[in-house]
Amino acid sequence: MCWSATADLVAGTVITAVGVVAVTVAVRHPRDLPLAALPLLLGAHQIIEAAVWHQGGGTGPATVTWSVIALPLLALWVPAAVLCAAPPSARRRLLVPLAAGVATAAVLAHALATSTVTAEIRGHTVGYSLGLPQAELIVVGYLLATLGSLLLSGDRGIVLFGVLVTVGAAVSLGLWRQEYISTWCAFAAVCSVVLLLWARRSRPHRSPWETTPSG
User: Fold this and answer.
1) Which of 27, 90, 127, 131 has its CA 20 to 30 A from that of 55?
2) How large is the angle between the packed helices 95-114 and 135-143, nearest 10 degrees?
3) Cα–Cα dist 213/47, whole Å
4) What does the pLDDT look like over 97-107, one tens digit per residue?
């Protein structure tokens, strides 16, 4: 993805369809719904980037919408969704990535509200620019919130997704440093199809009001 508007549109449509199926399957386990919906969100995200291609980059509505999803929304959505779906034994440690996500999302939302984000078509990739104070610290918070929550989830399926996304992050940083956000989001969207398999796994019914045991 992110190689052209057509690639983003086709891939986004397929991944969105996978997300619809995952959500349908996860209805049996309400706590899983936010994480099962991630392919749906990421697929729509790729479709939005197709619109960024069509508008030639710039600062239009598609660029802003793409950035809102990629930056503050995912920083908060991923750790919150993992916390909901994780086994009770892992939920206490997942509060750390969630706190990092809340703080990071707040900073990114403020930056998007007070600054202009710009998309630039660079060959077969898209680069996004947004002036951020202490960018390195924000990146650490973002990675802790997203990758950290997945890898600490205590669920094999979620950890597998986390490993794949981590590899994607490393590859994207190594090959497309200036277009890192766009390429990593595309990689994560493709990897998110494994969440359909995760949602379909067989396990005992859990109450949506299940709480973490004390101690």
Assistant:
1) 131
2) 140
3) 41
4) 999 999 999 99
